[in-house]
Amino acid sequence: MPPHDPTKPGDWKDLPKDQVARFDAALAPVLQRYPPDKKEAAMIPALRIGQEIFGHAGTAVQQLCAERLGTSPARAEEVATFYVMFHTHPTGKHLLEICTNVSCCLAGADRMFEQLKRRLGVENGGTTKDGRITLREVECLGSCGTAPAVLVDEKVMEERVSPQKLETILGGLQ
Ligand code: FES
Fold this sequence. Notes:
- 43% of the residues lie in helices and 10% in strands.
- By secondary structure, the protein is α+β, with helices and mostly antiparallel strands.
- The chain has 2 domains: 12-82, Orthogonal Bundle (Arc Repressor Mutant, subunit A), CATH 1.10.10; 94-171, 3-Layer(aba) Sandwich (Glutaredoxin), CATH 3.40.30.
- It has a 4-stranded mixed sheet with strand order 2-1-3-4, with helices on one face.
C-alpha cells in the first residue's frame, strides 16, 4: 500500500497499523484522566500524540483522534487547524520556527527570516528539497526579553539570535 498522503482526505485505516497501535497505547493512559462521556476533551493531547507518532496531524490522524474520542472529524479538524503547534502536513527532519512578532521584529527577526528563506530556498511553511528543514514564521514564543527568538524542533529555544548565530544553528541541523 502506498504511504498515506496527509494532504489529501484519507481514512485513518490507511495509517500504518503498528503506528496506530503505538498511538492507542500512548493515548490509553491519557484517557484514564477523563470521564468516559467527556473523552472528546482530550483532543489536544490526542492530536499531540498523533503528530509525534505519525509525523503530522493531517486528515487521517484527525479522523483517528475523532474516532477514538467518540466525536466528529470536523471537531478534530477545528482543533488541529486552530493551534499552530499542530502540523497538518509533514515537516522536514528539523523544524525551525522564527518569531517575527513585535519584540523580535524590532531586534531584526524580519531580516533574519528573509535571510533564512533565501538560504534555505523555501517560503514560509516550506521544506528544503532534501527534506532536512521546515521553516515557519510564528507568533510570540514567550521569549520577548531575549529577542530575537528561534525555536528548534519544538524543544530548543535559541535566544538573542544574530545572523551569525543563525548560521551556527543551521549548521547544527544535520
Ligand atoms: S515577540 Fe518574539 S518571543 Fe515574544
